[in-house]
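Example: Thaumatin-like protein.
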Amino acid sequence: NWAVRFWGRRGCKFDGNRRGHCDSGDCGVPPATLAEFALAYVNQNLYDVSLVVDGYNLPLRITLEKNCKSPGCYSDLNAMCPKELQVSKDNWVIGCKSACEVFQTDAYCCRGAHSTPETCPPTAFSKVFKDACPQAYSDDVYFHL
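Written out as structure tokens, the predicted fold is:
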């Protein structure tokens, strides 16, 4: 069993000792577009590009062997990010947080009474992500390619 998450970084500056800071995707700090892999997880190999937990900062696509789906987000969600979810630097949107990250409610985070696909339907915020990136895990419900 093996699981890993990769994310892109933007606007990074490092010193000679490899210590630094990034404008977005800094050591897993949201917002960050994620590539997730879970190998031999309950006898399955799962992979996705996720926008639902940590939001979005860069376009990302997973390309595997032929006959495998290539999940990803090719759109610039920063350009269409709802105002409430925007992360900006120098008047430029550099990331789009998830509604869960911003509002921390059970309804947006699909937890508590909203912990099943039936009780956690897509929201206006998740629909912006899903419409722009239909091949990414962006609904507030559970979905893996």
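The longest helix spans residues 124-132.
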